[in-house]
Design a protein that fits this description.
about 210 residues; alpha/beta; six-stranded parallel β-sheet; two-stranded antiparallel ribbon; about 30% helix; globular
């Protein structure tokens, strides 16, 4: 029996930039202490999968970065904060897209890129859960970027948008601590806009998809 062709997978990393290291701009505590470790593990897993010997098995990695129009922002092009965190920096062959608003789809070519890739599983991670991650997940679902027509039957195939909850993070907002803000945002996205899972579960999925049997 021949093996089913692997799905077209994309790991979408949103705004993992030095500007989030600002000592006072964001707050004193971030949710998900394991965020950096999980991002590192996910990038390693997807990069290893990109070298899979299975025919047609080439997951893509797309890095989004925020380029603010506000000169006082930590993400303004005049600031070092616009640069990627070292642990999440793109390597050769990975796609990089600049945005200037919360959504990674507004005034960018991300939607076109995902449609060209015919992505079937879109894995989303990054900063912050309640701002750019949430906005981008909602727009991805509304635009149907993982849906495509089957080349043989012509029928609509529904893809999957998957938020990796322990590879997204945020800070406290007003009287609400960072964990509460994060958890409420994840709960509001789950089901209607995306699936929600963990780094460990995604790495198992990637390993089983791209490892020869």
């Amino acid at each position: 029996m021949s093996r089913r062709p692997p799905p077209n997978d994309v790991l979408l990393l949103i705004d993992i930039q030095l500007g989030f290291d600002h000592p006072t701009h964001w707050g004193s505590r971030r949710s998900n202490p394991a965020f950096q470790t999980n991002i590192t593990d996910l990038l390693h897993g997807f990069r290893e999968a990109a070298r899979s010997p299975i025919a047609g098995a080439r997951p893509s990695i797309i890095h989004i970065y925020h380029s603010s129009l506000n000169p006082s922002s930590p993400f303004h092009p005049s600031s070092d904060g616009i640069n990627f965190q070292p642990y999440a920096a793109p390597i050769q062959g990975e796609l990089v897209i600049s945005k200037s608003v919360n959504s990674a789809f507004i005034d960018t070519n991300l939607e076109d890129m995902l449609r060209v890739l015919e992505v079937q599983r879109l894995f989303v991670v990054g900063l912050t859960t309640d701002h750019c991650v949430s906005t981008s997940v909602r727009m991805a679902a509304n635009l149907g970027v993982t849906d495509h027509l089957d080349k043989e039957t012509g029928g609509l195939v529904k893809g999957r948008i998957i938020l990796i909850e322990d590879a997204a993070a945020t800070w406290e907002r007003g009287d609400f601590d960072a964990d509460t803000v994060h958890q409420v945002q994840v709960a509001s996205l789950k089901g209607e806009f995306c699936e929600v899972t963990t780094t460990d579960e995604v790495l198992k999925m990637i390993y089983s998809t791209y490892t020869p049997t």
